[in-house]
Design a protein that fits this description.
seven-stranded mixed beta sheet; nine-stranded mixed beta sheet; 32 helices; Rossmann fold
Length: about 950
C-alpha cells in the first residue's frame, strides 16, 4: 500500500478496533453490490488501493488491511522501506500499538509486589505470529521514538518493555488529539521512560526523601499515637511536589495553589511550604492558634509562603480543607482563576495542583464535576496537575472490587482525555520523570494531567489505627519492606553518587534541624507581598457604614446604556418588548421592575470600576426570563452583552451559564471570591432547592471558613424561593438550613421584596467594607408582580432597608394585629387586606433575617406598643422557613404583654404539596389565619 494512502487510511477515525467486524460486513456488501452501501462508505472503499488487476480481489487481503487500521494507532508512521505485502511488518506495528495501548496494565507499579497482573496476550509476539527467526530480523518501527527507523525485533521488544512496563505505566492512547499523543510518545519513548539526571539533581532527591522520612519518624517518636496521617510509603510525593514548583517557576509561574486532603499534609507544610517545625510541635502539644474563632485541626490548615526557583520566587498557597476530601479541588480552581485574571495572564502564571486519594478520586462525584468543568469557559484555568497518592487501600477497604468498578482509580480522567502516568513511588527518578512530563504537557496543551503515585501506607488510616486487623498480608509485607529513602540511597551508593556515611549524615542533619525548630526548606523565602490583599476588608462588621446614593442623572444614563443594543442585532420579540420597557424605565416613564433594577445595580458598580462575575445554570437569560444580560441575535446566534459596553473605563463583567453542577460550581465560586475580594461574585441556583446538592460547601466553607481558618469571603448566593404551586422541588430554597448555620455574624440572609431592595442589596455587598457571604432568597413570581416595582428615586436616593414598615396610610392607633413576614407572602397579605378593607392590620417586612435587625424593627414597632396580637406569617411549613430558627428574635422585640402566634402551613416532611388546588387552599388558609379573617 502506498505510504500516502496508508496515512490517510490510518487517520480515519471510524476505523477503530470496536468497529472492525462492522466495517468488514459493510465491505462484503460493497463487493456484492457497491450501490447497496451508503455513498460515504462507497467512497472509502472505492479509494482503497488496488492490490490486483483482477476486478474481484480476495477479501482476505482487505481483511488484513482492516485489522491493521483497527489495531494500529493513528500516529504510527507506516513503514516506507518495506514491501506493502509483508504481513510480518504489519504485525510488528501492531505489537508496538499493543504496548502503547496496554503496556501500563503489566507495568511494575506496586512497590509491595502484591498486585496480581493479568496476562495481556496482545503483548506476546507469538499472538502476532512473530516467533523464531523473526526475533532476530530487523523491522521498520514506524514512529517509535526509541529508534530512528529499524530495530531487531528482539531489541524492540526489550525496549518496549522498558518504556511501557517498567516503573512507569503511561496511559494516553484514549486521547483523540493526534498532536498530544505524538508529543507524549516522543517524550516517553525517546528515553525509554528513564532519563538521566545530574549528580546535583540526584543529591537533591535523596535530601528531600531524607527530610520526608525524617519528619514522619520525628513526629512518630515525639508524639506517639497522635493523628498525623503519615506520608510514609508515599515519601516521593515531596520530591515530586518540589520538582513541580521548581519547574513551574522555570516556565514562568508566579503562583502555585495546592489543594489536598490529610495524607501527607503536615509533611508538605514543613518540607515544602517552610512552616516552622516548632509551630507544628506547638499544635501537637495543644497550644491555641492565633486565629480568632473556633480554629481547626492541624491537618486541615492552610499556609502561604514564597519558594525560590532558578527563574525567581514562586508564591505558594495551600488551601484550607475540611474532611470532605475532594471538595477542595474546585475551591482551588476558583482561587486560581481569580489569581490568573488579576495577573491578566492565564495558564503558566498560576499553577493549580490537586492531590487525591485513590478511593476518593474514584468515589467522590465532585471529581467528575471538576473534570467536566476543566475546559468550560467559566472555569478553565489552563489545566490542572492532579496527583493521586495511591496507597492501594483507600480508607480501610482492602480489595479493589470494594472501592471501585474499574481497574485503575484514575479511569475517571479519561472522560476529558487527560494523560495518566502511573508510577511506582519507590522509584524516585521515575517519579521525577513523570512529574516533568506532566507539567510540560499541562503547559503545552493547557489541559489536565494525572499522576498516579502508586505507593502504600506504612501505618493505618491514622496512627491510632491497627491496619493488620483487616489487611494482614499487606502489612506483613510492609513491615519487611525498605523505605523509599533506603531504596534510593542504596541505588546512589551503588552508582557511586554518594557513600553510606553521607546518606546517614543527611538523616542526622535533618533531625538536628527539626530540634532547632526553624524552617527546614532551603528554598523558603520571606513573602514579598500577599497574593490577595484583604487588608481593606478586615475588622468590619455587617453594619459598617457605606455610601448608598448614586447620582440620578448618571443612573438614568446607565439605564439608557444597558437598554440598547446594535441595530443589526435582531432580537427575539419577547426580549425586544422587555428592552423597550427598560428604555421607558430608564427615562422615569415607567416604574422599574426587578430585572431592570438588578441590571442597573450591576451597571453602577461597573461604572465605579468594580468587577462582577455572575455564574449559574441559566444566568445569562435568567431562569425565569427576567435578566437578559446576554442577548442572542436571532439569525446568526451572536451574543451581545450591554453591561460590557457601558463606558470605556469600567469594571469587567463576566456572566456565564455554568455546567450542570451545584457542588463543584459553588465551591469554585467560593474559591474565586476568596481570591477577588474587591468585586461582586455571584452564584445563582436555577431553583433554590437545587443548592441542596451543594450543602457541604455551605456547611464547610461559606458558613464556617472565617471561624475555622480566618478566611473571609464575599460570595453572594441567589436562591430562587417562593410558593407558587410548583411542587416540592421548585418551591423552597430551604431557608431554614441557612438560618440554622447563622451565628457570630458569619453571613447574611436576606429576602428582598422590591426592585429597589435588590438594587441596594447588591450594591451594599460591594461598596461597604465588610466581606461576608450573602444568602438571598430571590423571587420567581415577584419578578413580574405588578406591585413589586420601584421608582428611580428609590434607587438613586434610597438604601437597603433591613426591615420595611407599613406602607398604607393607616392610623397606628386603630391597629390591633401586627403581621411580620418576608418575601412573596407579603403581597398576598397586602392584596387580601386591601380587598377586605381591613384597617386594623399592619404588615411589616423583615428583609434581612440574619443578622436580625432588632434596632430597625424596634423603631417600626414603637407605634404599636399597644398591640397584643403579633403574627409571624410564612408560606413554608411550620418546621421549615424562618419560624423555628428566628422566633426568639421576634419575641425579643415585642411589647412585654404581647403574644406571638404562627400563621403558615402545618409541619410537613415535604417542602410543598404537588397539586395546585391543594396549594391554593393552603395559601388562602394561612393568609386568612394571619389576618384573622373568617370565610
Amino acid at each position: 500500500m502506498p505510504t500516502n494512502v496508508m496515512k490517510t487510511w490510518l487517520a480515519s477515525s471510524h476505523f477503530s478496533g470496536g468497529n472492525a467486524t462492522y466495517i468488514e460486513d459493510i465491505y462484503e456488501s460493497y463487493l456484492e453490490d457497491s450501490l447497496s452501501v451508503d455513498a460515504n462508505w462507497r467512497k472509502v472503499f472505492d479509494d482503497l488501493p488496488q492490490v490486483s488487476d483482477k476486478p474481484e480481489e480476495a477479501h482476505s487481503r482487505i481483511r488484513a488491511q482492516m485489522k491493521l487500521a483497527a489495531k494500529a494507532t493513528k500516529c504510527i508512521t507506516p513503514p516506507n522501506d518495506v514491501e506493502h505485502n509483508d504481513a510480518k511488518q504489519v504485525r510488528v506495528l501492531q505489537l508496538i500499538g499493543a504496548y502503547r495501548n496496554r503496556g501500563h496494565e503489566v507495568a511494575s507499579l506496586d512497590p509491595l509486589g502484591l498486585t496480581i497482573l493479568e496476562t495481556i496476550k496482545e503483548l506476546d509476539p507469538f499472538y502476532h505470529e512473530l516467533e523464531g527467526a523473526d526475533l532476530d530480523a530487523s523491522f521498520n518501527v514506524g514512529s517509535y521514538a526509541a529508534s530512528n527507523e529499524t530495530m531487531v525485533l528482539r531489541d524492540l521488544i526489550a525496549s518496549l518493555k522498558r518504556t511501557y512496563c517498567g516503573s512507569v505505566g503511561a496511559e494516553y492512547m484514549h486521547i483523540t488529539n493526534t498532536d498530544e499523543k505524538r508529543w507524549l510518545q516522543n517524550r516517553i519513548e525517546s528515553c525509554e521512560s528513564k532519563p538521566s539526571f545530574s549528580y546535583e539533581a540526584k543529591n537533591r532527591f535523596i535530601e528531600e526523601l531524607s527530610a520526608t522520612e525524617g519528619l514522619e519518624r520525628y513526629l512518630g517518636s515525639k508524639f506517639p499515637g497522635a493523628k498525623r496521617f503519615s506520608l510514609e510509603g508515599g515519601d516521593s510525593f515531596i520530591p515530586m511536589l518540589k520538582e513541580l514548583i521548581r519547574r513551574a517557576g522555570e516556565q514562568g509561574a508566579q503562583e502555585v495553589v495546592l489543594g489536598m486532603a490529610h495524607r501527607g499534609r503536615l509533611n508538605v507544610l514543613v518540607n515544602v511550604f517552610g512552616k516552622k517545625p516548632a509551630d507544628l510541635f506547638d499544635e501537637f502539644a495543644g497550644k491555641h492558634s492565633t486565629i480568632d474563632g473556633s480554629s481547626d485541626v492541624k491537618y486541615h490548615q492552610g499556609f502561604s509562603s514564597d519558594f525560590k526557583t532558578p527563574k525567581g520566587n514562586v508564591h505558594l498557597a495551600l488551601s484550607f480543607n475540611p474532611s470532605h476530601l475532594e471538595i477542595v479541588n474546585p475551591v482551588v480552581l476558583g482561587s486560581v482563576r481569580a489569581r490568573q485574571e488579576r495577573l491578566k495572564a492565564f495558564s503558566e502564571t498560576v499553577l493549580p495542583i490537586t492531590v487525591h486519594g485513590d478511593a476518593a478520586i474514584a468515589g467522590q462525584g465532585v471529581v467528575q464535576e471538576t473534570f467536566n468543568m476543566s475546559q468550560a469557559r467559566a472555569f478553565k484555568v489552563g489545566g490542572t496537575v492532579r496527583i493521586v497518592i495511591n496507597n492501594q487501600i483507600g480508607f480501610t477497604t482492602s480489595d479493589r472490587e470494594d472501592a471501585r468498578s474499574t481497574r485503575f482509580c484514575t479511569d475517571i480522567a479519561k472522560m476529558v482525555h487527560a494523560p495518566i502516568f502511573h508510577v511506582n513511588a519507590d522509584d524516585a527518578e521515575a517519579v521525577i520523570f513523570v512529574t516533568q512530563i506532566a507539567l510540560d504537557f499541562r503547559n503545552t496543551f493547557k489541559r489536565d494531567v494525572v499522576i498516579d503515585l502508586v505507593c502504600y501506607r506504612r501505618h493505618g488510616h491514622n496512627e491510632a489505627d491497627e491496619p493488620s486487623a483487616t489487611q494482614p498480608l499487606m502489612y506483613k509485607k510492609i513491615k519487611a519492606h525498605a523505605t523509599p529513602r533506603e531504596i534510593y540511597a542504596k541505588q546512589l551508593v551503588t552508582e557511586g553518587v554518594i557513600n553510606e556515611q553521607y546518606a546517614k549524615q543527611l538523616v542526622t542533619d535533618y533531625r538536628d534541624a527539626l530540634d532547632s525548630g526553624e524552617c527546614v526548606v532551603k528554598e523558603w523565602q520571606v513573602m514579598q507581598h500577599r497574593s490577595v490583599d484583604w487588608s481593606p476588608y478586615l475588622k468590619h462588621d455587617w453594619d459598617a457604614p457605606y455610601e448608598s446614593k448614586f447620582p440620578k442623572e448618571r443612573l438614568m444614563e446607565l439605564g439608557e446604556s444597558i437598554s440598547h443594543y446594535p441595530d443589526a442585532h435582531k432580537q427575539h420579540s419577547r426580549v425586544t418588548k422587555i428592552y423597550n420597557d427598560r428604555k421607558l424605565m430608564a427615562r422615569g416613564e415607567k416604574l422599574c421592575d426587578w430585572g431592570f433594577a438588578e441590571n442597573l445595580a450591576y451597571a453602577t458598580l461597573l461604572d465605579s470600576e468594580f468587577n462582577i462575575r455572575l455564574v449559574g445554570q441559566d444566568s445569562g437569560r435568567g431562569t425565569f426570563f427576567h435578566r437578559h444580560s446576554v442577548l442572542h441575535e436571532q439569525t446568526e446566534g451572536k451574543r451581545y452583552i450591554p453591561l460590557k459596553n457601558i463606558s470605556e473605563k469600567q469594571g469587567h463583567f463576566d456572566i456565564y451559564d455554568s455546567v450542570l453542577s451545584e457542588v463543584a460550581v459553588l465551591a469554585f465560586e467560593y474559591g474565586y471570591s476568596t481570591g477577588a475580594p474587591k468585586g461582586l461574585c455571584i452564584w445563582e441556583a436555577q431553583f433554590g432547592d437545587f443548592a441542596n446538592g451543594a450543602q457541604v460547601v455551605f456547611d464547610q466553607f461559606l458558613s464556617s471558613g472565617e471561624q475555622k481558618w480566618g478566611r473571609m469571603c464575599g460570595l453572594t448566593v441567589l436562591l430562587p424561593h417562593g410558593y407558587e404551586g410548583q411542587g416540592p422541588e421548585h418551591s423552597s430554597a430551604r431557608l431554614e438550613r441557612y438560618l440554622q448555620l447563622c451565628a457570630e455574624h458569619n453571613m447574611q440572609v436576606c429576602v428582598p421584596s422590591t426592585p429597589a431592595q435588590v438594587y441596594h442589596m447588591l450594591r451594599r455587598q460591594v461598596v461597604r467594607s465588610m466581606r461576608r457571604p450573602l444568602i438571598v432568597m430571590s423571587p420567581k413570581s415577584l419578578l413580574r408582580h405588578p406591585e413589586a416595582v420601584s421608582s428611580l428615586d428609590e434607587l438613586a436616593n434610597g438604601t437597603f432597608q433591613n426591615a420595611i414598615a407599613e406602607i398604607d396610610e393607616h392610623d397606628p392607633k386603630e391597629v390591633n394585629i401586627v403581621i411580620m413576614c418576608s418575601g412573596k407572602v407579603y403581597y398576598d397579605l397586602l392584596g387580601k387586606r386591601r380587598d377586605a378593607g381591613l384597617t386594623n392590620v399592619a404588615i411589616i417586612r423583615i428583609e434581612q433575617l440574619y443578622p436580625f435587625p432588632a434596632n430597625e424593627v424596634n423603631d417600626i414597632l414603637s407605634a404599636y406598643q399597644h398591640v397584643k396580637d403579633f403574627v409571624w406569617c410564612q408560606e413554608e411549613p411550620q418546621n421549615q422557613g424562618a419560624w423555628y430558627c428566628t422566633q426568639h428574635n421576634f419575641r425579643s422585640i415585642l411589647p412585654a404583654d404581647a403574644r406571638l402566634r404562627y400563621a403558615g402551613r402545618d409541619a410537613s416532611a415535604s417542602t410543598a404539596v404537588g397539586y395546585m388546588s391543594l396549594h391554593l387552599k393552603q395559601q388562602k388558609a394561612l393568609i386568612n389565619d394571619a389576618l384573622a379573617v373568617v370565610e
